[in-house]
Amino acid sequence: MPIEVLMPALSPTMTEGKLAKWVKKEGDTVKSGDILAEIETDKATMEVEAVDEGRVGKILVPEGTDNVAVNTPIAILLEEGEDESALSKGGNAPVAAAPANPAPAPVAEAAPAPAPTVPAAPVSVPDSDEDKFFAKTVKKTVREALRDAMAEEMRRDEKVFVMGEEVAQYQGAYKVTQGLLQEFGERRVIDTPITEIGFAGLGVGASFKGLKPIVEFMTFNFAMQAIDHIINSAAKTLYMSGGQMGSPIVFRGPNGAAARVAAQHSQCYASWYAHCPGLKVVSPWSAADAKGLLKAAIRDPNPVVFLENEILYGQSFEVPEDEEFVLPIGKAKIERAGKDVTITAFSIMVGHALAAAEELAKEGIDAEVINLRTIRPLDTATIVNSVKKTNRLVSVEEGWPFAGIGSEMCALMMEQAFDYLDAPVARVAGLDVPMPYAANLEKLALPQVADIVKAAKQACYR
Amino acid sequence: MAASRRRSTKAQTDTAPAQAVSSEELLHYYREMLLIRRFEEKAGQLYGMGLIGGFCHLYIGQEAVVVGVQAALKEGDDVITSYRDHGHMLACGMEAKGVMAELTGRIGGYSKGKGGSMHMFSREKNFYGGHGIVGGQVPLGTGLAFSHKYLNDGGVSAVYCGDGAINQGQVYESFNMAALWKLPVLFVIENNKYAMGTSQERASAGELHQRGAAYGIPGYQVNGMDVLEVKAAADKWVNYIREGNGPVILEMKTYRYRGHSMSDPAKYRTKEEVEKMRSESDPIDQLKSKLLGGGLVDEDKLKEIDREVKAIVTESAEFAQQSPEPDPSELWTDILVET
């Protein structure tokens, strides 16, 4: 059967083009790979190679023709043994079967009926059973809690290892990995060169094969060098592989402002990472949070970005002794119940929010403080249920306000709690400036307890 | 200036003499290279028909590289590469049907239609992608090698990158760690002379195979248009790597006949240059001459392989059109592993 040669698409966006020149003429023999014709697209003139072999039986579209639609038959090839009489029988498409399913139309046209922007049924996370673990606790710093979480999980699972700058011999730039080298040896506690994108990518590669790396960034500011692998490699591979391989990895380290280290070392990345599907983003406040959530993050088969806080490292909290104390990722915790206004916060801002709640109590305002613990997936149910009770929401974060976690809270209220609001949602956030160095300016740039008190009072029209 | 400096540095070529290769093996290489060639031609055609969208980078001309290296690897070794990946997948033993159906974005594709040409994987065949960010696969592949060392399983990772990726910083971060920790990794630079439209001369100082010298990584240039030379070099150095000696760099001098991607008119090189490579250095023609010239096989045997390959490719193209598009519910699967 004669073979139809079709007008090819020569770019992702081409729908038609000009048949500029026929290189082969009627009667010419054609081998696979021979140049048949030149075609002008909107971008360039391209040569079209033959795929099938044969002899040019008939040219259907003469050279110089403009606006030839993609997939229009432009010539007919005769196969070995066929002569011109075969032309009358008509052409046969180069690929025998007509597409059972037409090629996908451009997205704009193909968009299915109202597509949801989030999964219809949010993944339900079981309630935390943490209370029973608090019967027996010991006082620990956040730093010790993080170390204990890693040590316990490394004892439990040979596939868990920790790598990063100064994690081994130096015992951790912030002493979070203290003692791990002594217990687990250099095979599993690995000092890396200062090479963030390199070791982040190496960790993700190791996780593809089933190892469970804990990659420590000395601070998350340096992880910007590695963000390509956190997002493009760790977060997207499960999806891109159709579920064949994911990345069970933890990226952890201090996030946000420390003290007086200025713009390049003082930034909150919660909103950056929370933007991306395929990642879980956790940000603990207390030592118990730190331990229970880090253990959960290490056990989780997904990539988890674990945002710690340097200032909290030295703060002490009661931590359950039981090694099976693991907190669920995706559950917020009501740290203080109240009825007048809901305050959401994470990481170091939880402490500020609790302090603000004490101030507010003196003025007769009973604030409910929610420790988000997980930024993604956000525990929307706990937040919405709280607002249904208090009818007011103040979102607190250390990061910048624009497109921040507070913006997400506003959207959540619009979508799920609009009818329950008695006041506009208030955002307390870091100022929209690079972090200044001067002590007074730095303090002004970061949310203070008084800012939260003021916002809460405004929300209560007080 | 750059070109004259380049010439002053003596290239270290590796022309390890080929051990006796059986005609059975030679036919296997012929078949593998032909399968890649025909598959890619078909992919180009389906692209032209609008059945494949987006970016599509064909491997035509470079077949000897992946077929030769693959012949030196063993079960349990890994392969990872960039977005010019169809040939690597076929060489790893992934099915043409599944690869083609991924190109057409159908449920029967290796990634259920969600990855496309540049992002395909096979856990079963130890093929770890298919990565769209230039150079991104190099640390990932170094991590695969780290995993072999951590588990002490004797495996080796073959990490491919192009002459464009070799200028990315993360490649050197990987070289450093691979050498420091003696990781079992073969870095294969597929130097097809053009990083998209920029020639090696205009983008890269020095010799590419020497890029690991500062880290003490042995590096050699190999004629990447000759599958037997590729196989011999890969055999020798994969063995060296497997013995625990750390990484090696092999720069394969190769050539792509087609543009960088489907929409590249390739105006940065002359037709004569392309034609010269095709007529004088084609990896498939060269092997064919060896097979026929040496009287190892007759034309009929090769024709039989041609027919077999054509049938596989035709079947893959049909499957790639008949396999349905993914169900809309697939939008929401494989984002996170359910816990």
From TrEMBL, chain A:
It comes from the Bacteria. Its cofactor is (R)-lipoate; thiamine diphosphate. Its EC number is 1.2.4.1. It catalyses: N(6)-[(R)-lipoyl]-L-lysyl-[protein] + pyruvate + H(+) = N(6)-[(R)-S(8)-acetyldihydrolipoyl]-L-lysyl-[protein] + CO2. Keywords: Lipoyl, Metal-binding, Oxidoreductase, Potassium, Pyruvate, Thiamine pyrophosphate, Transit peptide. The keyword Ubl conjugation does not apply. Residues 2-78 form the Lipoyl-binding domain. GO terms for biological process: pyruvate decarboxylation to acetyl-CoA. Coiled coil: none annotated. GO terms for molecular function: metal ion binding; pyruvate dehydrogenase (acetyl-transferring) activity. Residues 85-126 are annotated as: Disordered. The keyword Zinc-finger does not apply. InterPro entries: 2-oxoA_DH_lipoyl-BS (IPR003016), Biotin_lipoyl (IPR000089), PDHB_mito-type (IPR027110), Single_hybrid_motif (IPR011053), THDP-binding (IPR029061), Transketo_C/PFOR_II (IPR009014), Transketolase-like_Pyr-bd (IPR005475), Transketolase_C (IPR033248). Residues 93-112 have a biased composition (Low complexity). The pyruvate dehydrogenase complex catalyzes the overall conversion of pyruvate to acetyl-CoA and CO2. PANTHER family: DEHYDROGENASE RELATED, PYRUVATE DEHYDROGENASE E1 COMPONENT SUBUNIT BETA, MITOCHONDRIAL. NCBIfam families: PRK09212.1 (NF006667), PRK11892.1 (NF008854). Heterodimer of an alpha and a beta chain. This is Pyruvate dehydrogenase E1 component subunit beta. It comes from Azospirillum lipoferum.
UniProtKB/TrEMBL annotation, chain B:
The gene is pdhA. Its EC number is 1.2.4.1. One of its GO terms (molecular function) is pyruvate dehydrogenase (acetyl-transferring) activity. The pyruvate dehydrogenase complex catalyzes the overall conversion of pyruvate to acetyl-CoA and CO(2). It contains multiple copies of three enzymatic components: pyruvate dehydrogenase (E1), dihydrolipoamide acetyltransferase (E2) and lipoamide dehydrogenase (E3). It catalyses: N(6)-[(R)-lipoyl]-L-lysyl-[protein] + pyruvate + H(+) = N(6)-[(R)-S(8)-acetyldihydrolipoyl]-L-lysyl-[protein] + CO2. One of its GO terms (biological process) is pyruvate decarboxylation to acetyl-CoA. Heterodimer of an alpha and a beta chain. This is Pyruvate dehydrogenase E1 component subunit alpha. It holds the Pfam family E1_dh. Its cofactor is thiamine diphosphate. PANTHER family: PYRUVATE DEHYDROGENASE E1 COMPONENT SUBUNIT ALPHA (PTHR11516:SF60), PYRUVATE DEHYDROGENASE E1 COMPONENT, ALPHA SUBUNIT BACTERIAL AND ORGANELLAR (PTHR11516). Residues 32-328 form the Dehydrogenase E1 component domain. It comes from the Bacteria. It is an enzyme of class 1 (oxidoreductase). Keywords: Oxidoreductase, Pyruvate, Thiamine pyrophosphate.
